[in-house]
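tool_log.txt
---
The assistant was asked to compare two proteins side by side. It first ran the structure predictor on the initial sequence, then on the second. Raw inputs and outputs are pasted verbatim so the downstream comparison step can read them without reformatting.
(1)
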Amino acid sequence: MQTNIQIEKCVYGGDGLGHLSDGRAIFVPFSLPGEHVNIELLDEKGKFARGRLLEVRVPSPQRVNPPCPHFGVCGGCHYQMLDYSDQVQLKTSILQETLERLGGFHFEKELEFTPSPNPLAYRNQVQFHPLISGRLGFLSAEGMQNIPIDTCLLPMPGIQQTWPLLELAEDHQLSRIAFREDSRGEILALLEGTEPEPPYLETDLPISLAYKAKGVPGIFMLAGEDSLLYTLQGKNYLVSPESFFQVNMEVAEAMLNYILSLLPTGTIPEILELYSGVGFFSKFLAEHCEHLIEIEASASACYDFVDNMDTFDNVELYEGAVEEILPSLVNQLPHPQLVVLDPPRSGLQSKARQALLSLAPEQIIYISCDPSSLARDLKAIKAEGYELKNLRGFDMFPQTYHIETVVLMSRT
């Protein structure tokens, strides 16, 4: 079924929001506020529906021609039809509206938001889905199929030059291929597949290659080095192929500097860091405290953490899920003056949030990659006697709907 609607606003997730003639909300990707659009209804529910954009009948004056030929079909980008300054303004308003609507906060002035120095060619990691034909592709905008691509404007130059050179046989049996580029310009490709043994491989590409079998722990190194090296403000990080690391280094550095500016003056007796990863923030936090306690679930990240933090003797690491480890440590931990947490997109699980609040730290620095889960968690933290002291958004992922946020909450 096709119909015409007007888009009223953009919401978190990359969609424009309008209403059908029967009053139901309709979410339409790649649309902008004020536009009159022709859509096809795809997924109808009781109170809302989703639509596919067929035609922009009355375009927004902000709409521009997207630079990528795959935009609108590929699901990787959401806002290439906007100039970058307009993308930042849109994300700022979405972040503020989400925190006010779901978190119950009120802001007298517009939120601070740090843009990315590079709106394109900023990603040091990108993940492809190989097609049966052997070509590389991405998930479609509707997430139902893989589509072949010829170009992607988001990866760093080294990845952009390398990935088109990879050739796969039609019987490759691979499900995903991730390319990563480190601070030296070295490239590592992690191949993932269903077969327990790595595939037969011939390559003369100057890159490192690793293979991970589905359901099998660990990886097979096929060629080159078994770790990447990232450098930030004179500090080095060794990162295994399976470990997460910040995707946009320039914005990550801006986030780090902002977090350091929020720390109390002087040496902090106890800092607790949750979801510490390979130690990106930990290297700097350890220099500002007497004792740093860490919790991380990923085995490969913990392995890298030990390497990256081996020069510090004031750090204690617990390996396991925060929602399992933290409640068991509440009665053993010294009172932390500061808790720093960088949870996954889903935010804090209930047990982890309850344990965190039972510790009653003086300050909480919350690093979020999802405004909705952030608003939920901040509302719960506020209800326990904390107030929002500082907040800033960061555009870690230009051209997409994703928003990073750093918040400081202080106990009143």
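(2)
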Amino acid sequence: MAALLDLDQLRTFVAIAESGSFTRAADTVFRTQSAVSMQMRRLEERVGKPLFTRDGRNSRLSEEGVKLLGYARKMLRLNDETLAVFDDAALSGHVRLGTPDDYADRFLPEILARFARSNPQVEVTVECAPTPVLADHLKSNQLDLAIITYIPDHRPAEMIRREPLYWVTSSRHHQHEEGVLPLALGRATCEWRRSAIAALERNGQAHRVLYSSWNSTAVGATVLAGLAVAVLPESAIRPGMRILTEAEGFPELPSCNIGLLRSWHHWTPLMDALACHISESLGNVTVEEDLQIAKPLTAAL
């Protein structure tokens, strides 16, 4: 008979992955650190694979651990959804969601509509801010969930969507033909901005940043006005914009990877329910694809 996975062990495993630390995970699941370590040893024995690898005094998720993470989340969600069916008290309360404005216009209407139909008594607070700000607010317990642009330097996110990143210009103007390319990009720390400038420099293309904003609507407005060329993900392209191609001298850009970060301070059924709706609304990444780009977890033992 096949071994059965222990849901308590899986919940602790997910808490470690989401908090980035055995110590913080112990606080989340209300266990001692030694009990958490024991749970993980037993889970590794049950799976028959090492879930963590040593990195000096620290541990990180192994490839097998990253693979298990996606399945563990699915199993816990199904367990919670099953119990909720037999719970006479509907979910109610308050959940806090963060998202960059790049994704708010395109994705929030469907996410919130789906969630409201299933959970009409829940209040959702939405904060629109750049990814680094959202990550900080999650860390300081000001948010429960955050849709983010995946950045390798941040702790592992649950990858849920991948989109192409494009050079875009106005369909009615020709600013892309100027000798010194005028650009509208995010702030200096924006990953898309860094990728765009690095690609232009490799091509020896003269350029200057004329407009800089965290707000994608503002960036898009400069494109539509014929003032600059911008870099935007597929979901942010609007009528009146035209995609520039490699044949026109614009280098290929890396993909835009969208992830979901969850609070490690606490867990509620509301958070899981909203996370499920987000994944179903945005999801186009499989567990196997997620494994290829997820940054290994570093966790202090």
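---
observation on (2): The chain has three domains: 7-83, 93-157+257-285, 165-248. Residues 7-83 form a domain with the Arc Repressor Mutant, subunit A fold (CATH 1.10.10.10).
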